[in-house]
Amino acid sequence: MMCAPTSRGSIVSSVLSADPFFGILPQPRTLTERLMSKLSVAAIDLLLLPLVMAGVSAGAAQSASSASKDARVATVLPLDTTVCTVLDESVNSRKAKVGDAISARVVLAAVAQGKVLVPEGSKVTGHVTQANARSRDNRESRVGIVFDRVLLKRGGWFAVNLIVQAVGPREVPGKQEQVFSVENTPTGGTVMVPSHETSGGTPTLDQTAEGAVGLRGLTLLPGTNAAGGSVIASSSKDVTLYSGSQLVLRVIAAKPGN
């Protein structure tokens, strides 16, 4: 049985008549009452129309915004461009599995030819390529990782092959201590001059850093291709890259066609 088309007026009328509150009202019987009822329905429709249109517009805007965030952009990072990041979640050679997703947050904008290509706050994503725990039969533990996508802070993404050029511990600010130095005065006397020195803390990796910096017992094999990625190894303990670990990544291949 086919459904007969129903007008908006009849829909609203049926809702009003079916509603427990509106249902207590007597149904119009005279021509005047029926006319007034239809006018009331039309007025309600006019009042509801702006709300309906606003909902439609908001939904369309949200869909457009989501599409722009998921859209691929035409950005291509030049070879050997470095990207300074910090790891989002810890990776351990005993717990990790090949294919596990990893991500890092960009802490220093990547600039090429005076143009910011990857702004601070963007994300770099990838996966684990190998994970071997240290054991009686396997004296060396290893974690291999590769990064292959950049999610821009402003929205959009692009593909790229990145290896790990340098890895370091979570950055811990050094402690400021006041020290004094003795300096001679023009009159032949001496004076104590206060100054500040930084002690402790961990080094901040910059774009020129290479290898495993400040990580005792770990070595870095940067790798030359995306298949194997970069390998962090240790012959004395299981490899653990903690959340917040510093990673300096370097572009080895752009992927404009993928």
How does this structure look, described?
The chain has 258 residues and is of the alpha+beta class. The chain folds into two domains: 9-70; 82-254, Lipocalin (Beta Barrel). The chain contains two helices and 15 strands. The chain has a six-stranded antiparallel beta barrel. The protein has a two-stranded antiparallel ribbon with strand order 2-14. A two-stranded antiparallel ribbon has the order 4-5. A hairpin with a 2-residue loop joins strand 4 and strand 5 (115-118). Helix 1 (8-18) packs across helix 2. It is elongated, with a radius of gyration of 33 Å. The model is unreliable at 1-25, 63-67 and 195-199 (pLDDT under 50).
Secondary-structure topology with pairs:
Layout: H1 8-18, H2 31-70, E1 82-87, E2 91-92, E3 101-108, E4 110-112, E5 115-118, E6 123-132, E7 141-151, E8 157-168, E9 175-184, E10 190-199, E11 211-212, E12 219-221, E13 230-234, E14 240-241, E15 246-254
Parallel strand pairs: 8-11
Antiparallel strand pairs: 1-3, 1-15, 2-14, 3-6, 4-5, 6-7, 7-8, 7-13, 8-15, 9-10, 12-13
Helix pairs in contact: 1-2
Strands in their spatial order, largest beta sheet: 1-3-6-7-8-15
Using the coordinates shown, work out and report the CATH topology of the largest domain. Answer: Lipocalin
Which class of the largest domain in CATH terms?
A: Mainly Beta
Radius of gyration: 33 Å
What tags apply to this protein structure?
258 residues, alpha+beta, Lipocalin, 2 domains, 6-stranded antiparallel beta barrel, two-stranded antiparallel sheet, 2 helices, 15 strands, 20% helix, disordered N terminus
